[in-house]
């Protein structure tokens, strides 16, 4: 159904900011002029968001904005070129997404066209905004739409890639809508305007960007989970037969892991990180390893239970696909891979009762995104690929 935004006839330089709950990444990216070329990350930086012992959303947001300013200023000082546009990709809890199935039927045939599609989409957006206001009215900020994508269209029960202009009696559309409090978006724009004056800022969600990047690279399988465990939150995307069907999240991520260690062992965050590093590289004494292993098992069980509880909110009980595409920071990734492959609650929910975990750690995307300078930051690479390839299908 056409590009979300068309590729320009000439190369463009843009800035991408990966706004997570654990860190902020920034990159200057050269976007190609044709679909046959790939984006190039010219420079990239990343800064952690300061962690507080007790969670307070206002302080959390203030720390996020501080890290964003630090990242933007650092990136600007790299002198990799002035961006034509700025794109911010948000992870939880900065946005709320919902997948919707839009249905329409009639006893007589009707033509599915762009006007009808727009009417149905606007109706869904209006209903989602009302739900958002009822749920998050305490934020004292009206919701702002950041993205809307039609994932698939079926006419008379059959999936169709080019549905406009066709007759049908039964229409079904899978779509996703993402909203953010306007207050949050305004604060992000304000911070970035201090570095990049008068530049247009667009927004999207990381789960949707990951979906586009993974779909573009992996032909099979067509059903899988997308899992992002990078900060305060775990984000879950469920893809069924090539369509992103559900987007969920729960408040248990990498930072929760280390906070749990700090509380139970009564140590500082830096000590918890060092201890876990020694444990994961098998550099602890046998006695000390035996002492901390029950703690890690307890965290494993807690995360597995939270994951299962999150998925239980789905409208029906279903066997989940057993392939998981995982994005996580280097220091914690392998531990979570082991959890996904071993945790009993998770195994009982997936087909075949055995998880296949695919790490999205950067190098696998090098044929889709070139790195001119710096590390293979998988988050920024995924976002650069999605920005280049994103379509409404």
Low-confidence stretches: 1-7
CATH superfamily grouping of the largest domain: Ribonuclease H-like superfamily/Ribonuclease H
Shape: globular
The main pleated sheet reads as: 6 strands, mixed
Structural class: alpha/beta
Strand order of the largest sheet: 9-4-1-2-3-15
Structure summary, number of beta strands: 15
Strand content: 25-35%
Number of domains: 3
Summarize the entry for a quick read.
The chain is of the alpha/beta class and 393 residues long.
Explain the layout of strands and helices.
Blueprint: E1 12-19, E2 23-31, E3 40-48, H1 57-77, E4 85-90, E5 96-112, H2 114-136, E6 143-155, E7 158-159, E8 166-181, H3 182-193, E9 201-205, H4 206-217, E10 224-229, E11 234-240, E12 243-250, H5 254-265, H6 269-280, H7 286-311, E13 323-328, H8 330-342, H9 344-347, E14 356-359, E15 370-371, H10 378-389
Parallel strand pairs: 1-4, 3-15, 4-9, 10-13, 13-14
Antiparallel strand pairs: 1-2, 2-3, 5-8, 6-7, 6-8, 10-11, 11-12
